[in-house]
Write a structure and sequence with these properties.
Helix content: over 70%
Structural class: mainly alpha
Shape: globular
Order of helices and strands: HHHHHH
Radius of gyration: 17 Å
Distance between the termini: 50 Å
Number of domains: 2
Mean pLDDT: 86
Low-confidence stretches: none
Length: about 100
């Protein structure tokens, strides 16, 4: 098995996924503490924590989808900030539909 396969197999382990989710939650909680410091440290911590939590928890994904349905514009900004593949795919589909209707 190559190195990429080993990393993917490790990412499917429930214990590893839970520990990454907890790490993401800790980073999210530390973000307000780092925000008064000079620089964008709080934003970086929040983004890293949110991406870890969304990648490794179905609960976090459901909460995020509910947030996006309730507030679509901030949800689009969050997708852009997290560089989510699904956001790029939806954006490309909406652009194609707009081009077809013209």
């Amino acid at each position: 098995m190559n190195i990429r396969g080993k990393w993917r197999a490790l990412g499917r382990n429930d214990t590893v996924r839970f520990s990454l989710f907890v790490t993401g939650c800790v980073l999210i909680m530390l973000a307000p503490l780092a925000s008064p410091l000079p620089g964008p440290g709080g934003l970086i911590l929040f983004g890293a924590g949110a991406s870890l939590a969304l990648k490794n928890s179905a609960w976090a994904k459901r909460r995020y989808a509910r947030f996006k349905r309730r507030w679509p514009k901030p949800g689009a900004w969050a997708d852009w900030g997290l560089r989510r593949e699904s956001a790029r795919r939806r954006h490309a589909i909406s652009k194609a539909r707009a081009a077809d209707s013209d």
